[in-house]
Amino acid sequence: MKKFIILAWLLLPCIVFAQEKEYSFNELLIGFHSNKLSRGQLLSFALKAKEIHQDSIGRIAALKFKKKYLANGNFRFSLNPDLQPLLDGFPNIFGVNDPLVKYMSKNQKKTDAALATPGISIFIIKNAITSDIINPLVYKNGKFQSEEPNWQIIEKKVRTYADSKTTKTLLINTKFGWYKAKNDWPNIVRCQIERIDHDGIDTEGLAGVMLNNIVYYEIFKYGDLPALNKGLSYMKLLLKHNPNEDAWIDTYANLLYKLGNTTEAMKHEQRALDIAKTKKNRDREKEYIEVLDKMGTGQPTW
Asked: Which helix (H) or strand (E) holds 140?
């Protein structure tokens, strides 16, 4: 018994070394063509191929991995964080009828926890629905079709595979892309407002900056009266959380001006200018002075 234990300890480092060995791409390629790669090696090969821009062979390897290890529907023990790079790198290999996608649809929180990646399930689900259901109905020969898609039919089909919240998100994003490609600004603005109201307003960090940009460059410049009032409500909320952001005050002032409230608009634009002076931001000082001049003489600022 003692000899056996000693022998086992002598062999253990060799076993660990074999498990941890890093194989080069060429070594993995040889093993792939001879069908001798283990589960971990096949996954590593697919990811290495993508990393060095061998996308075609990488996709073939990823599809082979999916067929061999992710097609039996038993994911209780097979899902782990090692799979996350595969899902990130090859989301388009998963369709709405794949067992993994069906499992994710019913077990999103459990799957995200198993993969140690919050949101990975909904990412894969949305991508599968977009590729399999939506794109064939809005694209033709790789481009958006000329006639406006039947959004009701698309929504009905998507609802077969997604909950109401995900369905609405996908529909808004698709509409926005289609209208953007057509330079249909009234509908672009409607989609943006629908998206903001659906997702909720985030005033923190980059999210606040992005919201301000949407309000200024899209809603303010191209929106109708109801859209301008919506934009005004968004900016009030942004400024409530950050009242001294001069760029946001400028957006707010411009909305007021376009809505016909010149006196209040100039008051807020002057405040934006004063803050810019305090910050010694010469470019914004110049911009705000020009805006004030236009407001004072009744010229459009858009």
From this structure: strand 139-140
Q: Do 241 and 208 form a contact (C-beta atoms < 8 A)?
A: yes
CB-based contact 112:120 (threshold 8 Å): yes
CA 299 to chain centre: 39
261, with CB counted inside 10 A (0-12, 13-18, 19+), is middle
Say if pTM beats, i.e. exceeds, 0.85.
no
Question: Distance (Å, rounded) from C-alpha 21 to C-alpha 44?
Answer: 12
pLDDT in tens, 60-72: 999 999 999 998 8
Q: Quote the Cα angle for 70-74-80, to 5°.
A: 65
153: its two tokens: 């039919």
Collect all residues with Cβ–Cβ distance below 8 Å to 211 and sequence separation of at least 6: 196, 201, 202, 203, 234, 238
What are 173's two structure tokens?
């994003």
- The residue whose two tokens read 């950050």 is 242
* Cβ atoms 86, 65 nearer than 8 A: yes
Task: Give residue 140's identity as a one-letter amino acid code.
Answer: K
* DSSP-based three-state secondary structure for 188: helix
Radius of gyration over every alpha carbon of the chain, rounded to an integer in angstroms = 27
Cα–Cα distance measured from residue 254 to residue 243, given in angstroms and rounded to the nearest whole number: 16
- Asked whether the predicted pLDDT for residue 1 surpasses 50, the reply is no
Asked if pLDDT for residue 141 goes beyond 50, the answer is: yes
Backbone angles phi and psi of 76, in degrees to 5: -60, -40
Q: Please state whether beta strands 139-140 and 143-144 pair in parallel, antiparallel, or not at all (unpaired).
A: antiparallel
Contact (Cβ atoms closer than 8 angstroms) between residue 115 and residue 79:
yes
